[in-house]
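Entry 14. Ran structure prediction on the chain below.
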Amino acid sequence: MPARSPGPTVREERAQRESPVQRARTRRILPARRGLGVFRLLVAVLEVVALVGNFEYVLGFRFFATANFFSYFTVQSAFLAVVTLAIAGGYALTAERDPAWLGVLRTMVTVYVLVSGIVFGVIVAQASTRDYRVDVPWSDTLLHFVVPALAVIAWTADSIMALNPPVPWRTVGFVLVFPSGWLVYTLVRGADVGWYPYFFLDEAQVGGPVGVALYCALVLVIFVTLTAGLVAVNRWLWRRARDRRAPRPRTPRRRVARDAPPASPR
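Output, structure tokens:
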């Protein structure tokens, strides 16, 4: 029996569905996508530097505990960001498009590092009103401000290229899974060891369980709002790029009727 020829790959099927104009525009964007891959990897490296520097900084504290350091939402979301950026960087360097699940994960992790920066900024701002000082070393500056800003730049650049599938709206629900699990773990552990990573999780500092619940509800609203905003922006940019890449219908040329030749004399 003759050997059956293998069917077309997913990339080949996608290329067949695209018009020549769309394929040409995709090829023009690919160098920028490779550059985005390098940028993602550099941000991941910077995040690792910030984590190492922050760990060395807190080692100097008298009551330092390793378990407490790794219990911060900022630290856990930073580890997620390193893994996600490394995976996304690899895809950008080796493939024309990211899988759909990676767009969901990148959006969620971007929200996590953004919320970490927002919460840290609020804590630093509130420190003066509560008569205590919060030092902001270079590692905290990287973790809470620089890396989140760079993550947003990488996420926005990817949305503008619009080579990947649009981020689905169900991401708004998925984004709460990790923070909810972290919150349960933190409250249970805090009640056991008497330590909380953030003041608004400590009943003694916010007026009891009601105060904790109100602060947690506010933070969850921030998660949902930021995610919904990023999804809306991504889908809007994706539609604009799709419209730009769509082949434009050609206007049919009108034929100009020629004057009939004069009748020849008989």
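Residues 1-13 have pLDDT under 50 and may be disordered. Will compare against last week's run tomorrow.
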